## 1
Amino acid sequence: MAPIIRIVNLTKKFGDFTAVDHLNLEVEEGEILGILGPNGAGKTTTLLMLTTVIKPTEGTAYIGSYDVTKEPDKARTLVGMAFQEPKLLWVDSPWDILNWHAKVCGLTPDERRKRVRWVLEELELWNDRFKSVHAFSGGMRKRVEIAKILIQRPKIAIVDEPTAQVDVVGKHRIWNMLRDLRYEGSTILLATNELYEADALSDRVAIMHKGKLLVCDEPKKLKDSIPGGDVVEITLEKDASDKVLEELKEIPRVANVLAIKQNHLKIYLNQAEEVLPKITEFFMRMNVQVRSIRMSEPSLDDVFAHYTGLTIEEAQRE
Ligand SMILES: Nc1ncnc2c1ncn2[C@@H]1O[C@H](COP(=O)(O)OP(=O)(O)OP(=O)(O)O)[C@@H](O)[C@H]1O
Ligand SMILES: [Mg+2]
């Protein structure tokens, strides 16, 4: 089956700065594809080109069979977007916004009544439905933005940071509603800088950094693909010298060492049970005291670090 979204060399420049750099990616019908990347990776810029809000500098994307640069009007008929920064409208209560949206999307009055009520109740906005969104918290505004997609049920739902600022209960509710939306037939493309959200929700995750796609695959495959299946985090009493770091890498079955800080190391290794005693011995021999040791399963952050040498948090700070 042909992919429902095909992104071909998609590029966006703002002046000399390349925000999205020759991106190639295909989204299959019915999947949830997460684009994961730190602030400034180019996620929103990509989504805005797919929804024809901004024009590519180079390359293009096909939404269904429509080229976004040649047939933007037709491409738009297939997509619905929940924006990262919800736009404020002239109507300002959730009730008016959602009813207006439902009308624009062509729902019959009967469907409209049912769906608007259901979505408002599910997202716990029912009691606030007549209040002005100007007075809403960030998380509440975000829920109104997501509600639009859940009412529209577009063929392709494009959601940008769907749960930013939403509390934990709200996050889980939105994730479940997005999963349901997919089961009802929508394809979902979501951008996020939250590792857990990308992992929990996506069938495949595309990792982006500095406008480029680093890798795209199922979360489990991504995590299994990094050398060193076990991750050990070690905090030291003092900074490790470069010599210590070099020699640490030489210990058999240690695949890689990432210094988050000079005294906070992430060690990727195989057969941790056997190697861990060797590592503690090594630090003793080098006269470096270990403050704590923690073992963990590899996360998408470790995948990101494998490709960039940075954790997502560090990349955000850069
Ligand atoms: N209209 C614009 N003019 C100039 N630069 C822009 C414009 N829009 C985006 N950029 C720049 O392009 C880069 C990518 O921005 P984008 O919003 O796509 O990132 P993002 O991955 O969505 O980040 P975040 O996680 O913060 O939402 C950033 O460096 C941003 O400053
Ligand atoms: Mg963004």
## 2
Amino acid sequence: MIEWLFFLLPVAALSGWLLARKHYKHNPRLQGSAVSPDYFQGLNYLLNEQPDKAIEVFVRLLEVNSETVETHFALANLFRRRGEIDRAIRIHQNLIARPNLPVAQRTQALVELGLDYMNAGVLDRAEQLFLDVLNKPSPPTEAFQQLLRIYQQEKAWPKAIEMAQKVQSQSQENMGALIAQFYCEMAEQQLKSSNNNVAILLKSAHFHDHNCVRATLLEAKLHMQAGNFRKASKSLLRIEKQDHRFLQEALPLLLDCYLQMNNLKVFNNWLDALLVEYPNMTSARLMLTHVIQLQQGSQAAQDYLYPQLQKHPSVEGLHRLISLGEQSNPMLVPLIKGVTDTLVRRGYRYTCKSCGFAGKSMHWQCPGCKQWGSVQPTEIHLSSLETLLESSK
Ligand SMILES: [Zn+2]
């Protein structure tokens, strides 16, 4: 309750000041006299820890007009931020009920009330309010954006697409990538069941975002379901142009396609060329190792991977090499040392428990948040090694 007071007192003081100012303006003879006794009654309720009664007094006291309406908004926002949604709702409803409220502020109050309902998790009420706001002259972008949020939470994808397009035309912000994701959500659902209009949905996704990797992956899966591995592989190869960082997602599907087409040689050559272009792509290197193993056996795979790891050390690569049967080779030790050296060198050994700053040397005063004694030694390099080893299983 004491904490509550600290928050509310400045607002109460501001209300008092606004009230006094208004009072003086309209009644010059009152200059020098005290503010309304109601104001003190409100303060009294506050001091007696009766916030509900205090709010009632303040709300009644502050006649809603262009001077005091901002105080109401501030008070309500304060309550909403503190999770006291029902109080925020009461203030906003009180504002909306005033017939003399200017149009722009009424719209704002409706939006704020909608936000209250969003916070309370009453999405259908929030939706109705924001939809009402859209019918007002020059509706604020906030209403469109909140509706977009609601439709995403409800997974109502067609409505979300419609709203994203409205946000785009309102704010000139490019929503293409987002709209493409919504089409992919719909396509993914359909792919599990009937899949008769999946292709159309994916076309729409690509129409809105030419470089939508997710739509390309789904397109490939659709072709694979139909047994058309040539078309599927053609789709998957396009991902290199769209965003090569996502190729990792395509590699297992590509392997499947080339196995089905009985054409691993082509896949092998493509991976070779890919690694020339992107020498640090560990996923491609491991896939190539696997392809070599399938074509020429474990020894050939080891012979390929071993010199590769000397140039491009990686925990995953090392793991693969060991699984291929390299355990007894003494040449493995310098390779392991190369990997652990990198991990130790790159790992942050000190972190601040207060701000999360991470560094390689001890600081008794944190360079990030300037606190004393908050930086502590950690076993981060050890745990990150374990995490990496864990994730490569
Ligand atoms: Zn810090």
